[in-house]
Please model this.
Amino acid sequence: VQLQASGGGLVQAGGSLRLSCLASGFTLSSYGMGWFRQAPGKEREFVSAISWSGGSSFYTDSVKGRFTIARDNAKNTVYLQMNSLKPEDTAVYYCAASKSRFNPSGLARTYNYWGQGTLVTVSS
Model:
């Protein structure tokens, strides 16, 4: 079981990035998926979750209206489109899979598999 996150980089405030999370070794469509982030010196925090079918999603307040989570089960991939980025969005972003088909709890301990993280840096 492996989750490979990619798409991070350096972007100016107001810019956009799209993160991808490719799953291998398991069928993504059986899992609820989430994105978390961890800024330097801070705890890991929940960003967004999407149900197994893509029909339901949930966002933390600080990214609502700016970030969009999506999935393509045929490609075993989950995405996080990030628009209007702010310096406070700077963090390592992690994708995670939950055996619950939709897990908007925001609790990292309820997710079963984790990717390695991709760094997003937003300059002011």
Notes: The CA atoms of residues 1 and 26 lie 6 Å apart.
